[in-house]
Amino acid sequence: MKPPAFVRRYKWSILIILVCAAAWYPAVNYLADFRQPDVAFITTPNDVVAAMLDLAEVTDTDTVYDLGSGDGRIVRAAAERGAKAVGIEIDPELVSQSQGMIREAGLADRVTVRRGNVFKQDLTPATVVTMFLTSTINAQLRPQLDRLRPGTRIVSHMFSMPGVKPRMKRVVPSAESRMDHTIYLWVTPIAWE
What we know:
Layout: H1 5-9, H2 11-32, H3 46-55, E1 63-67, H4 73-80, E2 84-89, H5 92-104, E3 111-115, E4 128-131, H6 135-140, H7 142-146, E5 153-157, E6 168-174, E7 179-187
Helix pairs in contact: 3-4
């Protein structure tokens, strides 16, 4: 059976269009990962970072994933405690700034900061997950948090997660910001209500 005359006449044009469409889809999907951030970047005071890592009991046996890692201060502090750390940040300028700071601190062997969408990351290697997002975004991360290994600690600065009670909640008076900061801890598996 012969293809229709239209197809025979324009087979190369059709082939080029199909190849371009096939190449375009992964490019658009890739670029969709790098949309505008869901939250504005606000630094976590260093004394609150220390309290978050203390609450999660971070040691040199841990792998800390910081979601929305901003300027990299949490991953740096975790690495200074001997842990391995991975920062995931969508803003390319903050990623570049963090990577430079990590290199200057001599922690590049312990810390990776990469540009990415937190909703599309594999978090299963983490033993600790830190975040300073919003309650809504924390709840949207539920599918990823449910895949974490049992015993993984999750610490959130300022925002709880709807539908689950934290194992611990602490108020940290920050000398740096001169404000009180609430931090929350959950341990997987999370008992969602």
